[in-house]
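B., you asked whether I could sanity-check this one before it goes into the benchmark set. Here's the sequence:
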Amino acid sequence: MSSTITIRVEDDLKERLVRLSKATDRTISYLLGKAIEEVLEVEEWQVGQTKKAIEKADKLGAKFVDHSEVEAWLKTWGTKKEGKPPKCA
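And here's what the prediction gave me:
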């Protein structure tokens, strides 16, 4: 069973959809449905993998360093005041 949803898109995106619909002889609804399906597959996979990685790290008692601390440390590389690596928490 299908359901109706309404979305707002920029005019140029709508024009692209219309052109592709004509070129492929597919409905705009079909194209949007496929696009949404593909995005959902990727996003759901990414969320799942992130959850698995967090669970694995938690089980192993992994230690982490905040990204901003690593970034600040890396910016000192190759300078006269190269910093010490940040400590894991």
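One thing to flag: The radius of gyration is 23 Å. Otherwise nothing jumped out at me.
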